[in-house]
Amino acid sequence: MFIVPESAIADLITPDAAFDAVESVFAAMAAKDAYNFPVVREAIGHEDALYGFKGGFDRAGGSLGLKAGGYWPHNLEKRGLINHQSTVFLFDPDTGKVSAMVGGNLLTALRTAAASSVSIKHLARPDSAVLGMIGAGHQSVFQMQAAVKHRDFTRVIGWNYHPEMLSRLADCAAGLGLPFEAVDLSTLGRDADVIISITSSFDATLLDAHVTPGTHIACMGTDTKGKQEVDPALLARAKIFTDEVAQSTSIGEAQHAVSQGLIQPSDIAEIGAVINGTHPGRTSTEDITLFDGTGVGLQDLATAAKVVELARAAGTAIEVDF
Ligand code: NAD
Q1: What dihedral angle (degrees, nearest 10) is formed by the CA atoms of 193, 220, 81, 22?
Q2: Which of 159, 249, 274, 292 has its Cα between 20 and 30 A from that of 171?
Q3: Count: domains in the chain
Q4: 3: Cβ–Cβ under 8 A, 6 or more apart, which residues?
């Protein structure tokens, strides 16, 4: 088997390579060539940690395996470690033998940013010029860096629940050569052509009344039952797309609109269908498109498999007889 440690990942995989891997696996999911296994997520009663597994099998790409890990809220403060910890394990689909162990922390950020940027590529208006960011945490920087590759954004506007964190967005925008302005939510909803929401909120932040026709919204923060970033009424008004419908309605942003009877699961389309050309996606400049990015195990497997390929080609994968 091959081992690629966390410390090696940054030098191996680019956001562009992560984008290609995620776009391909979303397409494979919609073509029924790949599927995710049910997610396990447990409060283990130790260190207040949430631990779980996300796995799947991509017959088209040949990836079988899982990401194991979760959230240890006291890591940073007690041990100087990041709170999210994960590792990806890949298996040979022909024999069941383990084939690779890959650090999953940076990969999680890259594959999550790749998902929202896939949605921007396929659903945002081609003339989108203003990027609106809600959230200024760890993931936000990866999100912004990936988003700007797919439209000619001329400026970034942002809002965060903790305003003292907004300098992270300003610094990131400056690094991309774009002006940044902190705005209130109604200005953000009115002026942004594309909105990325990446927060750990449990209440709707972006309201239906904030959003104007033609906007594309990538809701990326809601990945657990109870979390919520946008007004359920916004989902009733939007064309909704997701990575996986089962996750969208159970742990994604759509859980609220579905439980309130505002939408049906059948109102939600897989982004892979748009990639494959079997769903038209946006059909008007007035459509509001909303991508519910819940985060599926196949994204982790696809990016980890790419890392192993790159590490082997570079001669840096650690080979272990196992
Ligand atoms: P972080 O802890 O670094 O940042 C959290 C962000 O949420 C900050 O911007 C913070 O100000 C904001 N926030 C906190 N409480 C809020 C509230 N009550 N209302 C509005 N905003 C609030 O987290 P992160 O690593 O940037 O992750 C952000 C979210 O993305 C988390 O919910 C995480 O679970 C989720 N996530 C999703 C995926 C996916 O595939 N969809 C992948 C990774 C992370």
Answers
A1: -100
A2: 292
A3: 2
A4: 100, 101, 102, 317, 318, 319, 320
What pLDDT, on a 0 to 100 scale, did the predictor assign at position 296?
Answer: 97
Q: How far is the CA of 62 from the centre of ligand 1 (A)?
A: 32
CATH number at residue 270: 3.40.50.720
- 165 C-beta closer than 6 A to ligand 1: yes
**239 included as an active-site residue:** no
Q: How many CB atoms sit inside 10 A of residue 256's CB? A: 21
How much is the average pLDDT of 214-230?
96
Whether 118 is in the pocket of ligand 1, judged by its Cβ within 6 Å, is no
Q: What is the mean pLDDT of residues 43-61?
A: 95
Residue 120 domain flag: no
Catalytic, out of 67, 227, 239, 306: 67
Angle 290-294-298 (CA atoms, 0-180°, nearest 5)? 120
Q: What is the pLDDT of residue 184?
A: 98
Residues 137 and 270 in one domain: yes
Residue % of the chain over a pLDDT of 90: 98
pLDDT-derived band at 18 (thresholds 50, 70, 90) equals very high
Identify whether residues 59 and 190 lie together within a single domain: no
Owning domain of residue 260: 125-295
